[in-house]
Amino acid sequence: MSPRTLRSRVSHDRWLVSYADFITLMFAFFVVLYATATADEKKQAQVSESINSAFHALGIFPSSASQPASTPAPRPENTAPAVNAAGEDALAAANVRENLSHVQSELAQALSDQIAGHTVSIQMGHDGLIVSLREAGFFASGSAAPKPETLPVLRKIAASLAPTDFDLRIEGHTDNLPIHTAEFDSNWELSTARATGVARLLLEEKLMPPERLSAAGYAEFHPLASNATAEGRAENRRVDLVVLPRSSLDLAATAPSAPQQPWRKITDGD
Question: Are residue 107 and residue 11 in the same domain, yes or no?
Answer without folding.
Answer: no
